[in-house]
Amino acid sequence: MSAVSTKRPTVAVRRKRRVAPPSVRALLASTVQRAAAEQMILVQHVAKSFEAGSGPRRALRDVSFSVTAGEFVFITGKTGAGKTTMLRLLRSDARPDSGRILLGGQDISDLDQKQFRRKVGFVAQDFDVLDRLTVAENIAYPLETLREHPRRIQARVRELLEIFDLTHSKDRLAAANLSGGERQRLAIARAIAHRPDLLLCDEPTGNLDARTTFSVMRMLNRVSMQGTTVLCVTHDEHLAAMMGKRVLVIGDGVIASDTIGLA
Ligand SMILES: Nc1ncnc2c1ncn2[C@@H]1O[C@H](COP(=O)(O)OP(=O)(O)OP(=O)(O)O)[C@@H](O)[C@H]1O
Ligand SMILES: [Mg+2]
User: Which has more pLDDT, 182 or 261?
Assistant: First the structure.
């Protein structure tokens, strides 16, 4: 055997010995961390009450569920069931009385405002757009508040106008002049402009006719296919069923059912 062939294995063995094998504890910790990160939303035993004239009114009694990164999930339930309350808790707009909420493995109460705004986008029923700004300015606005580079903002605005079918000079039109469906598409474009990990929607099609509802849903589906986790509240059970996605039903202050489509 040559000198080279006898030396190589020795070096390899020495190198191998220097690397300490990972401890079982370290392996477990990394597995737990990975699982927590893959779980975009983890809600554990959340309760929330509000003061009503006759005493506290319990909106959520004991809500637990998780949503994996990239999932598209509907939350439905009767009026007053607590759907908007759940979204407000996920938006950090209100705090649970008990229980905890983790986003991407981090307790929501530990995230500062800036971290939170980067992670989460929100679409409301009442078309959350700025009427006096143009369509393009509406999309650029959240990126400017996050101090993105102007050139990147321009590129992202152009991309979103295209994706959301808001071109043909609409980029120069004041948002006040858009139709209902166009306004809601613009609201979604604004909410995802900064590429949040999670998009929360509260009745995003509540004011729209069936055809426009379908086109907005197609847009949300597209957002989800590009990797954003989407959690969409609707009182419209048929819409949730039609989309063939996972549906959580809130009833009596808990998750009453968790199915694909409607059970
Ligand atoms: N800020 C508040 N102050 C007092 N009560 C509240 C408040 N927010 C919600 N509630 C009450 O909590 C309950 C749940 O309200 P929530 O808005 O979450 O219902 P919802 O499922 O979104 O209903 P809808 O389908 O009509 O939008 C209701 O009884 C409501 O009156
Ligand atoms: Mg509501």
Answer: 182
Strand segments, DSSP code E, in the chain are: 39-52, 55-68, 72-76, 98-103, 106-107, 120-123, 198-202, 229-233, 246-251, 254-260
In this structure, the residues whose C-beta lies within 6 A of any atom of ligand 1 are 50, 57, 59, 77, 79-85, 235
CA 63 – CA 67 distance, rounded (Å): 13
> Which pair of structure tokens corresponds to residue 167?
């071109």
Rounded mean pLDDT of the chain? Answer: 85
Q: Among the bound ligands, name the one nearest to the CA of residue 124.
A: 2
Considering every ligand atom shown, identify the ligand nearest to the alpha carbon of residue 78 and give its number.
1
In sequence order, the 6+-apart residues with CB closer than 8 A to the CB of 258 are 65, 246, 247, 248, 249
Q: How far is the CA of 83 from the centre of ligand 2 (A)?
A: 5
Q: With H, G, I as helix, E, B as strand and everything else as coil, classify residue 181.
A: helix
21 within some domain: no
Q: What is the number of structural domains in the chain?
A: 1
Q: Does pTM surpass 0.85?
A: no
DSSP 93: S
Residue 182 belongs to a domain? yes
Query: For 61-114, how does the pLDDT look when each residue is reduced to its tens digit (9 = 90+)?
Result: 999 999 999 999 999 999 999 999 999 999 999 999 999 999 999 999 998 888
